[in-house]
Amino acid sequence: MQEHGIDRYRKVQIETASPGQLVVMMYEATARFLVRAADLMNDSRYEDSEYWAGRANEVVYELMGSLDFQLGRDIASTLSATYTMTIREILRAQIRKEPDILNKLGLLYADLAKGWQEAVSRQAV
């Protein structure tokens, strides 16, 4: 099967990214997925919304699995609590059909992406 141009671009982007850049990309993806899920929920497209919320959950689980508590200590603990809260709140949003919860989480992950991007940029200098 032939890859589309955008798929090849993303694959190369992921393969050549530093660990910090990968975290930024994962936060950005989570934010996009959550906003998409909220938009679909607003349109009463619950099954589609669940798909995108599930994609966000998958990324958050990957982020959880990448935490190094020996190296990161307090930061890793804080991020672990954030990720756990995210999973809980996504479920709550789906059960209650409250897209605002998903939008707020999307903003949180967009902010995390910006913060990590600044940290990654400072390291590259």
In short:
This protein is mainly α and 125 residues long. It is built from 5 helices and no strands. The mean pLDDT is 90.
Going by CATH, the architecture would be Up-down Bundle
Mean pLDDT: 90
Query: What is the strand tally?
Result: 0
Number of domains: 1
Q: Assign the CATH superfamily.
A: Flagellar protein FliS
Low-confidence stretches: none
Helix proportion of residues, in percent? over 70%
What does this structure look like?
It is a single chain. The chain is mainly α and 125 residues long. The protein has a single domain (21-124), classed as Flagellar protein FliS (Four Helix Bundle (Hemerythrin (Met), subunit A), Up-down Bundle), CATH 1.20.120.340. It has helices spanning 5-16, 19-42, 46-65, 69-96, 99-124. α2 runs antiparallel to α3 (46-65). The longest helix has 28 residues, at 69-96. The model has no long low-confidence stretch (mean pLDDT 90).
Write the layout of secondary structure elements.
Layout: H1 5-16, H2 19-42, H3 46-65, H4 69-96, H5 99-124
Helix pairs in contact: 2-3, 2-5, 3-4, 4-5
Based on the model shown, name its key terms:
5 helices, globular, 88% helix, Four Helix Bundle (Hemerythrin (Met), subunit A), mainly alpha, 125 residues
